[in-house]
Amino acid sequence: xxxxxxxxxxxxxxxxxxxxxxxxxxxxxxxxxxxxxxxxxxxxxxxxxxxxxxxxxxxxxxxxxxxxxxxxxxxxxxxxxxxxxxxxxxxxxxxxxxxxxxxxxxxxxxxxxxxxxxxxxxxxxxxxxxxxxxxxxxxxxxxxxxxxxxxxxxxxxxxxxxxxxxxxxxxxxxxxxxxxxxxxxxxxxxxxxxxxxxxxxxxxxxxxxxx
Length: 211
Prior knowledge:
Helix content: 10-25%
Radius of gyration: 17 Å
Largest sheet: 5 strands, mixed
Structural class: alpha+beta
Number of strands: 11
Number of helices: 3
Order of helices and strands: EEHEEHEEEHEEEE
Distance between the termini: 41 Å
């Protein structure tokens, strides 16, 4: 049963959704991700099921095994460098990973409360308030990634992407069931090399555990 709207539709009247040209494409990217627990995953899948059943627009659903909250994208799929991103990673992996371990040595695990669905032009996401501990963690991790003076830009929103769009159309209005809110503990982060966007194919290369 649907209950009064917990979600908000982002975007102005008349704005259309955009098809993500990267979907399913080969890529090179490296990310630090927080993963939902099994209970969190059940809530996310339930929300996806409901959206798919009610949305009047063709959607591209993020598979359950690919659902995650990005803590930091070290090397973005669209970023351009003087050589391949996996080549860069292979050279700097040991140095950056050691720096990450130093960062998290005094960073305690925390919990994100996902309580809102947002429909933007590019995606349908669930969001959580951006905690100061997460902001500080992201900034420190980003500063630890140094490639010839370049550093990645940390995200400014805590979110999990549920869908991308497969067609252009009005931004959908979404209602959510009682699956929101839910609390997602973040005791650790996984480090992945992404080879098909968005995390449709990836390799886990490490884990960073918070204090």
